[in-house]
Design goal:
Elongation Factor Tu (Ef-tu), domain 3, mainly beta, 4 helices, 6-stranded antiparallel barrel, about 190 residues
Length: about 190
């Protein structure tokens, strides 16, 4: 389980196509806290650390299913990713409950400045938008955010300077794919009332 509070902006140093999937190599100071088999959220996708653990690098295998259902297939060497280690039982839950199970991929539709904040509109499939409510929680590329508006085909989030500076969302441009994880509580509520 994660909180959606990004702990580091990692750099993808290598992507090796294994034929069955890809292995990412990521540089981050968080690598020193990882052992083989540990979970790590990469742009909101829960992956398992393999090989190269420790020091400044860690590896993670990404299976074809994950490549199809997330934006990880669009990564390139030299790109940056949002990283978060899993929540410990003694940690504060400062964001919201994020599982690292991406529900779908959206696309940045527009961005605009609003004082010191930046509004980002994200197009999303109606099957996901039904779980998105104004002032509700959503994870975008693993970042815990509050929804500021909802339209028929999109929702909007408002980024504070800290989020702009410390996550990949600060460089989000129209057309860029982003991983979306809706609030898991909304899915359970829907199941209960059916």
């Amino acid at each position: 389980m994660f909180t959606g509070l990004v702990q580091d902006l990692g750099e993808v140093t290598r992507i090796d196509d294994t034929g069955d999937g890809v292995r990412l190599a990521v540089r981050s100071h968080l690598a020193s806290e990882l052992s083989e088999g540990d979970s790590v959220a990469v742009n909101g996708v829960c992956l398992t650390a393999v090989g190269m653990c420790g020091g400044e690098l860690f590896g993670a295998d990404v299976m074809r299913e994950t490549l199809r259902r997330s934006s990880l297939g669009d990564l390139a060497a030299g790109g940056h990713v949002n990283l978060e280690l899993p929540l410990r039982a003694t940690d504060r839950l400062g964001g919201h409950v994020v599982q690292g199970h991406v529900d779908g991929v959206g696309a940045v539709r527009a961005t605009r400045e609003d004082g010191f904040a930046r509004i980002v509109e994200i197009e999303a499939d109606p099957s996901l938008l039904r779980y998105v409510v104004e002032k509700g929680s959503i994870a975008v590329d693993g970042v815990s955010l509050t929804v500021s508006a909802v339209g028929d085909t999109f929702f909007a989030i408002s980024l504070i300077p800290e989020t702009i500076e410390r996550t990949t969302l600060g460089a989000a441009e129209p057309g860029r794919p982003v991983n979306l994880e809706v609030d898991v509580l909304a899915k359970y509520v829907e199941k209960l009332i059916r």
